[in-house]
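Researcher: Go.
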Amino acid sequence: QVQLQESGPGLVKPSQTLSLTCTVSGDSITTNNYYWSWIRQPPGKGLEWMGAMTTSGSAYYSPSLKSRTSISRDTSKNQITLQLTSVTPDDTAVYYCTTDDAWGQGTQVTVSS
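Model: Structure:
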């Protein structure tokens, strides 16, 4: 059974770059044709898909976030990383790492000076 665990800073200052890591266990990020996605939920709002990486290493991004988002992976550590540049308070949210049939528990990120 695949398990996902997000990690990263809980507080980021405006204009900085947010970096989050998803550590995957129970399966390899390079097999099974999964999409490894990042999804976030701002307070009081719905879920927003940010982007995804395929098992072959191709990355896809939400058009609204594409200019600020980068998804990469470390196959030796079985990790997927999200970077979001030039953050503002509007990027405050719970960030989730997900795959076809599993979600991480989410990590709260607050953007504030």
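Model: The mean pLDDT is 96.
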